[in-house]
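In response to a reviewer's request, we include the raw inputs and outputs for one of the modeled complexes. The two entities were modeled together in a single run.
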Amino acid sequence: MVISLMSSKIDFEALVGKHSEELFAYLWRMFGDSAEAQDCLQDTFLRAYRAYNRLNGESNTRAWLYKIASNTAFTQLKRRGNTKYQSAKLVENLASREASPDLQVEQFDRLEQVKMAVMALPHKQRAALMMRKYQEMTYKEISQALNCTAESARANVYQGLRKLRKQLAEEVSK
Amino acid sequence: MTAKRNVKRDPTLADWLGDDVKRLPPNDLAEALDSAFAEGPTKAEQQRAASALKESLDRELPPKVFYDEVHSSTLGPIWLATSDNQLLAVDYRQSEEEFLAFLSKLLDGRFERSSGKVAWAANDLLAYINREREDLQLEVNLSTLTPFQRSVLEETSKVPRGQVATYAEIAKRIGKPKAVRAVGQALRRNPIPIAVPCHRVISSDGTLGGYSGRMGDERKVTLLQIEGVVFA
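The model returned the following structure tokens for the whole complex.
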């Protein structure tokens, strides 16, 4: 009985319906770019479909999907070559958001600084930070998604925050 | 370990590194991060991503297969699977897991449980079982079967309502008079019972000759009775 459960496929479309929005938001935060997040989302679900037979009933499906999404994102980011966030893309993004025209230049600069600092973080730290702060995941889930211990997930968030704080403080003092 | 020591020196950060998801990092950082990331993608971006995802899955993966369970007072639970316009499987298994395991062996598809999408077939099937209609003409898909299985099931579909044929007769009609046992096997593995009326095929000695599942014989009798076959 257990064996038949493990080898059976479950309702794949329900999985897509339930998790695609939050995964897109996560990838959007990972890339700082809508088009790249969109590509990565597609690859994530294609991989998920192919790996489906290996998912057994006991797994946390959500964390499992985040794991595939994270690995796919890391590969895509590596392929892209530069870990530096391109500010041209930010401008594009902001334009597409139809930001109010009287948005203060100062505010805009600040926003860009933050985004650039976050995008410059090591991918794993950014992933842990985003999952923690904006994807409402527990450290246990994050550890499953990043294939590490909960302690290491926590350390990644911490190191990321420390780096950000240091960098942003430097920017301000300039 | 260094992380731990530093955390102790920074109580606000330590707070946030606790297990409560809702807690926030120190204010200055929280505000900065929120300004860039809290909102996330816009609704338009979400919609574009969703439709691009749908297109990509439709293009790269096998087609959607809809399934659901219906209840018939006389035959018990019946699982069925359909495409948009074809009936793909009918099954008497007890649980969703068992049915999906069977289905994934039968065909490759993205399974989606949906009462709405299978309703066109489910309604006809139930109406037939409940004797509200006498004809059942659902388009079926036998393409996943071997040519032999297909020929047996196609021949079986020609046996009219209210009548029966024997395994030997079906074997003869498909031009393989010696393949009586193989005909029996093919019918036992019929993935679309009721719609492909394997219940209308019986043994040459007049006994039932078996039907799917534990309550198989009872179901076979019930279906034949529904169709007006009289048992002596």
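As requested, we also summarize the result in words. Residues 162 and 224 of chain B are 7 Å apart (CA to CA). The first strand of chain B starts at residue 64 and ends at 72.
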